[in-house]
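Support reply, case 0932

Customer input (verbatim):
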Amino acid sequence: MPEKYSIGEVAKKLNMTPRAIRFYEQKNLVNPDSIGENGYCYYGEKQLQKLELINYLRYLNFSIKQIKQLLSDQNSAESIHLLIQDQIRADENEIATLRQHQKQLKRLANTVVARKIGSDNMIGIAQIMRKEARLTSLRRKMWLFGLGILLIEVVGIISALQFKELDNLSAMTASIIVMLILVFGLTAFVTKFYYNQVEYICPNCETKFIPSLGKFIFSPHTPKFRKLECPNWHHKSYCLEIAR
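Our regenerated output:
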C-alpha cells in the first residue's frame, strides 16, 4: 500500500509550512490524495512531487497563474517553453532595475561621504542627486565633445599631409590654420559651456562658490575635484565639483 503523509509530515519533508500547502490547495494547484475519517488530509508521493515542483517554480518567481498554466499544459512543450521565456524576460528586467538601483545607491553613498551629509541636511538629498545625475550627463557630453575635437585634429593632420605630398605648401598652411582656428574655437566654447554649468564646495567650510574663468581653466583638477581658493576660508583645497 502506497505510503500516505499528513500535512505536517509533508511540510517537514519539503521544508514548507502547512499554511503554504493549504494556500496551494485553495488555489487548486494540488489536492490531497485522501481525507481520513478524522477529517485530516493525507498526501501521496504524487502530491509530494507536485508540491516540490510548485515550490521550485515559486522560487523561480513564477506567479500562481503561470504555475496553473504549466501544470495544466504538461503535454504542450511549446506552451511551457513560452511561459519559461516570458519569465526569463521578466527576470532580466528585474535584474536591470536592480543594477540601476545599485548604481544609484553607490552614487548616493559617494555623495554623502564627499559632501559630509549628515542627518541634519538630508532633506535636500533628492535635489542633490538630481544635480549629480545632471553633472554625470554633462561629463559624458564633454567626453563626446573631446572626441569630436580629436577627430577634427586627425582630419586636419591627414589633409595637411596630403597637401605636403602634392608640394602645395600654401594649401597645407591654410589647412593647418583652419584646423587650429576650429579646434581652439571649439575648445573655448566647450570650456566656457562646462564652466557655466558647475560650481564648487569648499571641503573646510562647505561654502559654495564659482571661481573666475581663469582660475577654473588653470587650476589642477581631477574628474570630480578642482584645486581652488575658497573665498570664505581663503585657503586652496581640492573642492568638490557640483552642478549649478
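We compared this against your earlier run and they match. Two observations from our side: The CA atoms of residues 158 and 179 lie 11 Å apart. Residues 125-165 form the longest helix (41 residues). Please reopen the case if you see a mismatch on your end.
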